[in-house]
Amino acid sequence: MTPLSEEQKRDLEAAAFRRLVSHLRERTDVQNIDLMNLAGFCRNCLSNWYREAAAEAGIALDKAQSREIVYGMPYDEWRDKYQREATPEQADAFRENRPKDH
Question: What is the rounded CA–CA span in Å between residue 49 and residue 56?
Answer without folding.
Answer: 10
